[in-house]
Amino acid sequence: MAIEFYNVKKKKKVSINEDDVKKKTYERNGTIRYAFRAVDDDGTNLTKFCSKADFDKIKAPVEA
């Protein structure tokens, strides 16, 4: 299954294979945000924020 990200350099949506996606949590002032991270073929770093349910559903490694 592919995950859709928005590439700001290309100004369009791109699909990244689930195998190339990593999970990351961001904590600020006691609030936790969940995100998927990947790198596009042109080298652009991609981030997509998601719900905890989507975060738990995807089997991907967690970034430090």
Task: Produce a short descriptive summary.
This protein is mostly beta strands and 64 residues long.
Describe this structure in words.
By secondary structure, the chain is mostly beta strands. It has one domain. Helix content is 9%, strand content 53%. It contains one helix and five strands. A three-stranded antiparallel sheet has the order 3-4-5. The protein has a two-stranded antiparallel ribbon with strand order 1-2. The N and C termini lie far apart (24 Å). The model has no long low-confidence stretch (mean pLDDT 96).
Question: Helices, strands, pairings?
Answer:
Layout: E1 2-7, E2 12-17, E3 22-28, E4 31-39, E5 45-50, H1 52-57
